[in-house]
Design a protein that fits this description.
With 112 residues, the protein is mainly beta. It contains 1 helix and 7 strands. The longest helix is centred in the last third of the chain and has 10 residues, at 100-109.
Length: 112
């Protein structure tokens, strides 16, 4: 018997790129190690053995693909599934560092 699989349309706002890079997560009380899973213009998915609360503001520091400098950007934890976290970047805030022009150029290749 053949099953027809109906794929749901992608409801994500932005295209995502697979990512496999170390990420440092900074909370108000700790610095944590994480692994970046994927990246989009608006945020990232990461894995960390921590208890981050949905809605909490954090900073993440990582080396984006095709970039030569680490970037640190503020974000908000929007989703959690066990130790996988969905982070929305707050790139319009003044709370980011690194070569943001280089990241912005990379982001245009993602379609943003």
């Amino acid at each position: 018997m053949i099953f027809k699989r109906r794929l749901k349309p992608d409801r994500r706002r932005q295209k995502r790129q697979l990512l496999n890079t170390p990420v440092q997560v900074f909370t108000e009380s700790a610095q944590l190690e994480a692994l970046g899973i994927n990246l989009s213009n608006d945020g990232m998915c990461l894995f960390t053995m921590a208890n981050l609360q949905v809605g909490s503001q954090i900073q993440v520091e990582f080396l984006p693909p095709q970039c030569t400098e680490l970037v640190r950007v503020s974000g908000i934890v929007r989703h959690r599934a066990l130790y996988l976290y969905g982070i929305d970047f707050l790139v319009d805030s003044e709370q980011h560092s690194g070569n943001w022009a280089e990241v912005a150029q990379y982001r245009t290749t993602l379609g943003g």
